[in-house]
């Protein structure tokens, strides 16, 4: 009997299996036809639940043939319910098209930023954008390993980043064009830079979690400002959806660097933000009591864990007429680096560098990054709406640089430690901030035929470095912790104040009139802007030394702490009377005219922009400069033409030509000089703007909602490119300055491939950019005079790439997403090829950065109730920054260190350590 039951059960099981089949399908957005990722699919009787994958697909296995009820739901979309018949086979072509459930007000659709900040929304914007564009969505930023906008930038094709002293990204280089050749926007409005020298904005100021998306423009149309030869960066801030939305996260972490060594800090609370000159007047004689002792009171300890958090609230009120969004972010992190720097000089006829000394440096930095964003928008009706938004970011960086320099001689032995030493410690507090306030209006007239957009903008940027303090001692024996005797130098302590402020007032106006409608659309557009920029720059420094009766005091014997020093001010009235204290102005007036023609197969945008620039400076304390006042006035006509040819609904060809310029910064045309870390810098009042013709062609394929294949090529011809080089003073040839100059004509061209593909739960993001550029620079070498037999200097032209340009840049990210179980994970690798870091005045002596790979990773697990836990890991391989000179000098063979590899001489290496972060996130709606 038991055997008979077993046989019957087996037959029933086989029969059931024979009637079971798979149920597979896709879920799409009805309006755009794009796949929806993460939609919930429910199959009833019995109830089973799954979610769509990265390509919008879902699958149920072992489904019984016959009638079945299925429902599809997703946030901001209307739920779909259907009854269908499951066949024994061929159930893999089900398609569901979801309609938006957005709130409506008098035919105005107010879309949730939950849609616009998705990968699908980003691909849609890239496809429809008039200019060539790459976009990183807010959701991609959220689950990435990146905390700042600068680090997000490195994931974009054709973009490499420059690191700051703690290894974080700081500046973006677009398509091999140095950071000076791009500008930064917030919600489409240009913001000033707090940098004390240049126009470009340090992108590490901006916390990434304030963004709805990050856009990179690689070409320009006439309605965009024309000073972007490399491209433009637009940070689109969070918007107000139709319903209450709350996003909050908090996390903590640590740097591997401080598991291995102590963190150096000082008391910055009593720093004097104004110099004695500013407090007491120009004739005041400063004493030691006018300066803070806290900046010399160094502490060595383990830092506290990092603390990072953000909160955003958004909702619409008054029947969705009024939208409000408030967002804030705070990051308190402890970072640093260990650096070895080999100082060198050029001697002999071969012009190869000879290593003369070595500096070992430890950087310890506490970064406090604050970001605030608020926006209010009001919709009067379908034709009129206004918005008012404010953005404030602040980065306070408290840094200590501890260094010991070893001077080499022929008998030097690093083990015996028998060399002359110099100990240098610098305590520096840098505070940078940007504020932008914009009132914007959108208006439509005559049944949408005539549109008016306007903006009134106030922006400010500030950079403050108060009481920058350094102390230098001579050492007799090698010991980094100063436990052995050291002698105070002649003027061991310096106090330095630097501050600059930019204030911009700007007005924008854009007019659009539709001439043709229907299958052939033609819009005529015109507009312009006026911007008034005011800059003030202040510099002052004081030198302090021991009195004559204490000039030879010994550290550890005569004094135990730097705060015990009894110092006399060598220049008691300060050094404010220098060329770095100046005022500057810039008025920019521009106008444009353009057209946009659209048909079923073609879109063409063309026109021209005219920009008039009046830039000037006034040295408040000229010190013998030939041009204590100066200005540059010029007008540029910048034509452009963009065309898109639609091959299919998902494929298109995108071509562009535009002309652009690059203006000098204020600091670059002020004819003053300043002593920096290892060299002197000075401005160049004869520096001209650069102009460039830019050509682009790209094939664009968008096969799925979040997928793309972009293959393109670009060419840039730059007239008078601005590069920094070491140059001899025209009057006193023995003085060498690092100065900006114009260098003829440069050519820059390359190709890009950008690929995103998803396979259910797994995705691949990859891009590669090849860039080739050439520029000629006059270099100094030494030759043997055939008559006298003596060596003498000679100038030759050397061809090289543009500063900061890498021939090869690549990114590869592997993604995993399981919506049903709430998992998101990725591993991201970025490769940056070798590039020039510093242009030397000598032949074959340029300083190059070695190519490097950086690997980061992140993962997030979501739970019920909107709670999720995430982890982030940065610089997993502890990738260093290494600088080298091509070639070797036999004289360096006497140094008992491994500095020569593959025919190159190592000059500098910086190690930053790994960084880890763990936290949780809460989302409501």
What's the helix and strand layout?
Layout: H1 2-19, E1 20-29, E2 40-43, E3 48-51, E4 57-64, E5 66-73, E6 80-86, E7 94-98, E8 103-105, E9 108-110, H2 113-116, H3 119-128, E10 133-137, H4 138-142, H5 149-153, E11 159-163, E12 169-174, E13 182-186, E14 189-190, E15 211-217, E16 231-237, E17 245-255, H6 257-260, E18 263-265, H7 276-280, E19 299-301, E20 306-317, E21 322-346, E22 353-381, E23 384-407, E24 420-445, E25 450-475, E26 486-516, E27 521-546, E28 567-569, E29 582-598, E30 602-619, E31 629-646, E32 651-662, H8 666-669, E33 673-675, E34 680-682, E35 690-701, E36 708-719, E37 722-728, E38 736-742, E39 745-759, E40 762-784, E41 791-800, E42 808-818, E43 823-832, E44 835-838, E45 847-849, E46 852-862, E47 867-874, E48 881-886, E49 900-901, E50 904-911, E51 915-924
Parallel strand pairs: 1-7, 13-16, 34-38
Antiparallel strand pairs: 1-4, 2-3, 2-5, 5-6, 8-9, 10-15, 11-12, 13-14, 15-16, 17-20, 17-51, 18-19, 20-21, 21-22, 21-50, 22-23, 23-24, 24-25, 25-26, 26-27, 27-28, 27-29, 29-30, 30-31, 31-32, 32-35, 33-34, 35-36, 36-39, 37-38, 39-40, 40-41, 40-42, 42-43, 43-46, 44-45, 45-48, 46-47, 47-51, 48-50, ...
